[in-house]
Amino acid sequence: MKLTTTLTVGAALSVLASSAFAYDADWKRGRVYYRSVCTSCHAVAPIGSINPSTKTKAEWAAYLKADKHNKGKDTVKQYVSKAYRASIKSGNKAAEKFADTPDQELMDDISAFLTKGAKDGDAPATCS
Question: What share of the chain is helix, strand, coil (3-state, %, to 5)?
């Protein structure tokens, strides 16, 4: 009985500890990266820049979940990866600034920015 109680308490503490250290996305950091990296690339591409307010929160969530970029030729995660940031950091200050940021944290930050700036978000955003 003592072993079961100890295991149960240990498991509960483990769950609490992991939730206490969950990353809280920073939409402002996501905005900096999106505007400096994503928008700068799209502005010179034939598609042009893509404002967060062009899609709803659900559409952005589906896009990020599908992880398909450039009509499925690339992944979104590729453009948020440390490897990609390292490849462009000499010409992009945001990529250099976030060079050591974990990929998932940066992806969460961008997602938070897109959600906030979506057509139906708290603060629909344009990227100019």
Answer: 60, 0, 35
